[in-house]
Amino acid sequence: MGVEGIGASVARKEDKRFITGKGRYTDDMIVPGMKHAAFVRSPHAHAKIRGIDKSEALAMPGVIDILDGKQLTADAIGNIICGWMIHSKDGSPMNMGVWRPLAEDTVRYVGDAVAIVVADTKAQAREAAEAVAVDYEELAAVTEAVAALKDGAPQIHPEAANNQIFDWEIGSSADVDAAIANAAHVTELDVVNNRLVPNAIEPRAALGLYNAAEDHYTCWTTSQNPHVARLVMSAFYNVAPENKLRVIAPDVGGGFGSKIYIYPEEIVCLWASKCTGVPVKWNCDRTEAFLTDAHGRDHVSNIKIAFDADHRITGLKVDTIANLGAYMSLFSSSVPTYLYATLLSGQYNIANIHANVRTVYTNTTPVDAYRGAGRPEASFLIERAMETAARELGVSPADLRRKNFIREFPHETPVIMTYDGGNFDAPLDAAMKASDYDGFPARKAEAAGRGKLRGIGMSCYIEACGIAPSQAVGALGAGVGLWESAEVRVNAVGTIEVLTGSHSHGQGHETTFAQLVAERLGVGIDTVNIVHGDTDKVQMGMGTYGSRSGAVGMSAISVALDKVEAKAKKVAAHLLEADESDIVIEGGELKVAGTDKSVPWFQLALACYTAHNLPEGMEPGLKESAFFDPSNFSFPSGCYICEVEVDPDTGKTDIVQFVAADDFGTIINPMIVDGQVHGGVAQGIGQALLEGCVYDPDTGQLLTASYMDYTMPRADDLPSFSVLTTKTESPSNPLGLKGCGEAGAIGSPPAVINAITDAIGNNNVPMPASPQTVWAALKA
Amino acid sequence: MASISLTVNGRQISGEAEDRTLLVEFLRGDLGLTGTHVGCDTSQCGACVVHVDGNAVKSCTMLAAQANGADIKTIEGLAGGGELHPVQKAFHENHGLQCGFCTPGMIMAATDMINRHGASLDEATVRAELEGNICRCTGYHNIVKSILAAAAEMSGTQQAAE
Question: For residue A253, which residues of chain B lie inside 8 Å, CB to CB?
């Protein structure tokens, strides 16, 4: 490892612009003639639109135009798509309703966009939006998935009878039923996985610019995957062909999944720019974000886990109802299926697993991937069940897990995943040691002396990351491949640009990707620039989500570097009159091994571009690209141990210790990886203790639609974390990377709830475990 | 419309703003100082914290007209003479930021916090005082670390100067 290579905790190259106020986020963009947009949104959860009267609003100061769904339809702008086809167990395709970027006949959730107002200023646009008179005929609404499935529930889309989108299964039901029937012990839990709002601190924004002279569109947008946005806007929304559409995702202030999707607003801003002839910028306020950013989780599940007399798991059965909201968002169908049920084996050797998942429309904000996406839901079920089973069986939670760990790889689970490596004992041992697990009884007794209920809980998670092998996901219904691309441009003076289809919105790619180049070529990271987030600069890419930027994105860079090195060695061998196989690259030079002959990197680069003396037939230049498609998912795993103290008088929970031990495979920058775990754990603790959407079940109004009402984790809600790692390399990519972005949010909620239930002696504590909830559980 | 005359990052500024214009809108829209961010509309997130007459203020809670005559410092004005402020430096060295969106407000709030508490700042105080600044990326772990590191450095510097 060099000082800036793989494994070095290098401070981030991108920091300077952020700490000096020079970041460039979408809402910071100003283009000449730019006007401002506000959306007219439905105040009702479910209603027919009888008519729209724009006359008063159009006459207001500064208003340029107001465009509605009928005009959008007349211009043949397409429906919002869901990119993953799921078939029900009877073989029928999912029952997908129509989602128009601007609702034309019916609104289906509070916040559904109805029209766009374009005006000189943002304030004028907002005022005029208030004055647009939409004549609604209110309809009955339903917000909870279980209620929506019942006969007589309000029907949300004509395509989906009883609001059911699909009824899907994986695994063998008969085998699991037999295992349960023959079990020595069965643990059963009913579990609600609470609905969350991702809440990136940068609200979404879009700036659409139509250039009539060139018939060309530019869209600045808060996106995790600008290339996919361009593809979808071209291929499905009919906004513009790809060669006439440039999508730029500049600095993006956090994503956590919510900025993967192509939302109505960016499509409508682009279209409105063409309609009005002016650049149109929209940026949403926080309540608008609560109403319209795709939400996460919202599962209602039952889990049964069967054990034999020796405490080995013999079967696991899960029944889940997943709320997908009013419309099917881009990846919504994959989250409660292939990103969820395929991980239900956890870290355990389980011969029989069956999961049944029904997905349901409700009059709520669409639900899609949020940090972890399906895997937190799976992990929560298994790890709550394992801890509960250990208590019921009277054995140590660690021992019960150890007894059932998978220790031989590759391991094929009954839910189609093939775990290709890992060592589940190592993080468990490391976390128990770091948390002084064995010393807990003494700490509990000491806390009792202070009138506090102390509890400890663990969770051993596994996730599938490095999303994903294209052929495999294609066979499961994905509409896209999930490879990644890279281009390594060595300039004539030896500096390097790396163009990547990954997108950085906090992950630090400008540093870690440069570290990979530094490791390989022996150059300083300051000579390497990472270029991303602009479809005019970077070749096609698939973006950042599913902890894929390292395992897939950096692997593409690695393969492109292989090609650069190969060519550079050929040129060096030619210049140094040596054999190509004797050339080594180190310390910024190409050397003939075992001699003092060398050529500096910059001189080699220059030779490639002057092309005065290259091997016969070789093309000038030094620039290579690669598309990397992983051979499998990667499987990060780990063990989290949480220790809490509950105040029995108030029900308030304090997290007094949190230890995270993760196996992420190869680590490029430990400081950045630790930071990813901190953030993920904070979001997981947020889910467990603080966060949760509340809808009024009668009106469908989102009651938690601001930071006054939805409890975001604050600094004083959280402890400092103990974060450590163990290592087994992933065999599915050349760097051995597994991915670290989602682990914290996946592993931590069950650890927290296991700790609280241990503390209070009542196993029934729903999330978020607010003081009121815990207090009620204490009194139950 | 209100006529406003104020000092921003050491420069005398005069301008006009609608009565309802918030200070943050004036800074971002009229002065182009886009380092100050807007992350909510209920004065909860703290992405818009600036210094008004030396005190940390959420610039979304104040009308531009109310800042008439005030001395404002934004994130763009914190570093002096090309040198990063110790708080900026500490956030960089301790990985106190990820996406960077809450960072300007965090740094301005932290600077004020250190100015008030000096070397006596401890973790519990930092966490309590960050109640008005929300970060979604870092879990606050490295923000707290950054602020404590900056506090140590700044108090050390002050002692050396005294």
Answer: 37, 39, 99-102
In this complex, the residue of B39, B92, B139 whose CB is nearest that of residue A718 is B139
| Fold exhibited by the domain B2-77 | Ubiquitin-like (UB roll) (3.10.20)
CA distances A28 to A264, A276, B13, B100, Å, are 21, 22, 21, 14
Contacts with A343 (C-beta within 8 Å, 6 or more apart), sequence order:
A374, A375, A378, A379, A415, A417, A462, A463, A464
8 Å CB contact of A675 and B128 = no
Å from B146 to nearest chain A CA?
Answer: 12
* Chain B residues closer than 8 Å to A680 by CB: 139
| Chain A residues touching residue B32 (CB < 8 angstroms) | 30
* Nearest-by-Cβ selection for B42 from A16, A706, A744: A706
Outline which parts of chain A fall under CATH 3.90.1170.50.
Answer: 31-139+202-253+259-292
Cα B158 to the center of its chain, rounded Å: 21
Cβ A23–B140 below 8 Å, yes or no?
no
If you search the block for the tokens 């609001």, which residue do you land on? A163
Distance from the first to the final alpha carbon of chain B: 47
**Cβ contacts of A506 on chain B, cutoff 8 Å:** 98-100, 137
Q: Which residue of A has its CA nearest to B128?
A: A716
The segments of chain A whose pLDDT lies below 70 read 1-2
Query: Cβ of A21 and B75 within 8 Å?
Result: yes
Partner-chain residue, chosen from B95, B136, B139, that has the shortest CB–CB distance to A199: B136
- DSSP lists the bridge partners of residue A641 as A458, A659
Classified as helix, coil or strand, B127 is helix
Segment B84-134, tens digit of pLDDT = 999 999 999 999 999 999 999 999 999 999 999 998 999 999 999 999 999
Q: What is the pLDDT of residues A563-604, one digit of tens each?
A: 999 999 999 999 999 999 999 999 899 999 999 999 999 999
Q: Which CATH architecture is the domain A483-628 placed in?
A: 2-Layer Sandwich (3.30)
The answer to whether the Cβ–Cβ distance between B95 and A671 falls below 8 Å is yes
Beta-carbon separation of B144 and A202 below 8 A: no
What stretch(es) of chain A map to CATH 3.30.365.10?
Answer: 299-468+632-779, 483-628
B76 neighbors B58 (Cβ within 8 angstroms): no
CA distance A337 to A332: 9
Tell how strand A722-726 and strand A653-663 pair up. parallel
CA nearest A504 in B: which residue?
Answer: B99
CA of A505 to nearest chain B CA: how many angstroms apart?
Answer: 5
Closest Cα of chain A to B46: distance in Å?
Answer: 10
Q: Which fold has domain A31-139+202-253+259-292?
A: Aldehyde Oxidoreductase; domain 3 (3.90.1170)
Q: Break chain B into its structural domains and give their ranges.
A: 2-77, 86-161
CB B130 within 8 A of CB A52: no
CA–CA min distance A24, chain B (Å): 8
Closest by CA to A597, choosing from A581, A614, A583, A613, is A583
The token duo for A760 is 């209070």
Name which of A9, A14, A20 to mutate to probe chain B: the one with the most chain B Cβ atoms within 10 A of its Cβ.
Answer: A20
DSSP 8-state symbol, A712? P
* CB neighbour list of residue A313: distance below 8 Å, 6 or more residues apart: A305, A306, A307, A348, A349, A350, A404
* Architecture of the domain defined by A299-468+632-779: 2-Layer Sandwich (3.30)
Task: Answer yes or no: CATH 1.10.150.120 is held by domain B86-161.
Answer: yes
List chain B residues with CB under 8 Å of A14. Answer: 100
Residue by residue, DSSP assigns A8-32 as --PPPTTHHHHHTT---BGGG---T
Residue B161 confidence (pLDDT) above 50: no
pTM for the full predicted model = 0.97
